[in-house]
Amino acid sequence: MISLGDTTYSFSDPLVLIVLAAIIFGCVVVVLLFVAVRRVGHASVISEILASQMGAMSQRVQMLSDGQQQLFGGLNSVSEAQAQQQAKTLQLMEQRLQTVSEMMNTNLNKSAHATAQSLGELQLRLKTIDKAQENITKLSGDVLSLQDILANKQTRGAFGEIQLTDIVSKALPSDSYALQHTLSNGKRADCLVRLPNPPGPIVIDSKFPLEAYEKLRGAKSDYELNEAARFMRTAVRAHIRAISEKYIIEGETADGAIMFLPSEAVYAELHANFPEVVREGFAARVWIVSPTTCMATLNTMRAILKDARMREQAGAIRKELALLYSDVDRLGTRVDNLDRHFGQAAKDLADIKISADKAGRRAKRLDNFDFEELAPDVEPQVVPLNSPD
Q1: How far apart (Å, rounded) are the C-alpha atoms in residues 302 and 176?
Q2: From 117, 157, 339, 364, which residue has the greatest number of CB atoms within 10 Å?
Q3: Between β-strands 257-260 and 286-289, what pairing exists: parallel, antiparallel or unpaired?
Q4: Are 192 and 168 contacting, i.e. CB atoms less than 8 angstroms apart?
Q5: Which of 98, 120, 142 is the last residue of a domain?
Q6: Which domain does 246 fall in, by range?
Q7: What is the total count of domains within the chain?
Q8: One domain, residues 103 and 207
Q9: pLDDT tens for residues 183-207?
Q10: Are residues 10 and 107 in the same domain?
Q11: Read out DSSP for 162-196?
Q12: Neighbours of 156 (CB within 10 A)
């Protein structure tokens, strides 16, 4: 209930309800108005913001439009530049392709020429190879023939003698040795080198223990190796003893002899694995040589022969030296005379040059001479004028 003055109203009274409803409605209206006013204020602010944003948006749209136009112009420029660059690139590529094509053609021509030349050289080399093959085939036949020769003792001895003859003929003068020389004991030596005393004539005999060497090379067991080594020692010792007994004669030959082995391999085998046999040869005054060492030994002998012949010709050499001295002395005298004549001629030439210089100077003075300067100064004659009578 509501009391107003003396009057009391009940909430159930329709009038009270109407009044309350009106009051509530008025409050609601006032609230709504307040809210509307506030919203209107916010709306004006928002509208201002929207207006400013719209202005900025329009500026940005204008800027975008300007940028689009600039971009379009740039794209056109880029498109034109790209087109020009593409044209230049195509032109450059065409030039390079043309250059590369020309280079390829040149290289292909050179390659074709080189290939043709190489084929020609290859054909020549194939011909050379064919010829070498023929020579090898022929050589193989010759090797088989050589094996057949070495298989026989007599032919093997002849092979060693021929090789010794070839070496001696190349190393010594023809009058300093004798081939197949027969000694006083009736033994025939393969070669006798006529060396002066001492040491005197020395014998070179060729020996070739091929069977022993082949057995030594073909041994496959220790037993075979020992047997081959024993056979090798026996064969070489027999050769040393034979040379020592046959070809060393006191008063006729030197006190030693040379055993020539026509194989470097056999010589190397002896010095490598049979040094005691080599020492036995030294003791028996038999020196073992190979083709190489034989050439060196013969060169030493040639020096000995040359020295001996120089001693033999010492008198003739002294005579020739005396004649040479007189010739040189005579030449010196003649050179002195010639030098004196040259000195006199040089002096005469110097005098002639002096006279020529003097004559030239006199001629020059005569050429520059001024005759007017020598004329005497004559005073002019003045003819007086006589007055008429």
Answers
A1: 9
A2: 157
A3: parallel
A4: no
A5: 120
A6: 152-320
A7: 2
A8: no
A9: 888 888 889 998 888 888 999 988 8
A10: yes
A11: HHHHHHHHHHS-GGGEEEEEE-TTSPEEEEEE-PP
A12: 19
